[in-house]
């Protein structure tokens, strides 16, 4: 009986060691997987930041579409930052991306604190400039 018990205990000890090895292997696989996922997220953020820095308004692209894309890229690139930091950065990236130099310059001088303000100002500026151009054209026709 004693030998049978000792044999059972030995078998249990061997099974426990095997289980421990399996658990350690599983934990290592999980650690590697998590590290890989974290690196993937970091790389995605780096790519989004690079895209933000190099983003320029495309010909025919509206300011609203540009602002929406800047906002999308900001949410990917700066998800971990406090809200006030990305808002200010978003405005800066938006201004940098504006294609028309006069609109960009006017919006930059406005010193917008957030994307919404920068977009509103740039749209007003472009609308006023369009009205001014049309007024000049109408006046020249009247003369």
Written overview of the protein:
With 143 residues, this protein is mostly helical. 84% of the residues lie in helices and 0% in strands. The chain is built from 5 helices and no strands. Helix 3 (84-97) runs antiparallel to helix 4 and helix 4 crosses helix 5. The longest helix has 53 residues, at 2-54. The mean pLDDT is 89. This is CCHC-type domain-containing protein.
Helix/strand-derived class? mainly alpha
Low-confidence stretches: none
Mean of residue pLDDT values: 89
- Counting H and I runs of at least 4 residues, what is the number of helices? 5
Task: Report how far apart the termini are.
Answer: 121 Å
Largest sheet: none
Oligomer designation: single chain
Number of strands: 0
What percent of residues adopt helix (DSSP H or I)? over 70%
Radius of gyration: 30 Å
Cα shape? rod-shaped
Strand content: under 5%
What pattern of helices and strands is seen along the backbone? HHHHH
Protein name: CCHC-type domain-containing protein
Question: Descriptors for this entry?
Answer:
143 residues, mainly alpha, rod-shaped
Task: Give a short overview.
It comes from Nephila pilipes (Giant wood spider). With 143 residues, the protein is mainly α.
Helices and strands in order, then pairings?
Elements: H1 2-54, H2 63-77, H3 84-97, H4 101-110, H5 115-142
Helix pairs in contact: 1-2, 2-3, 2-5, 3-4, 3-5, 4-5
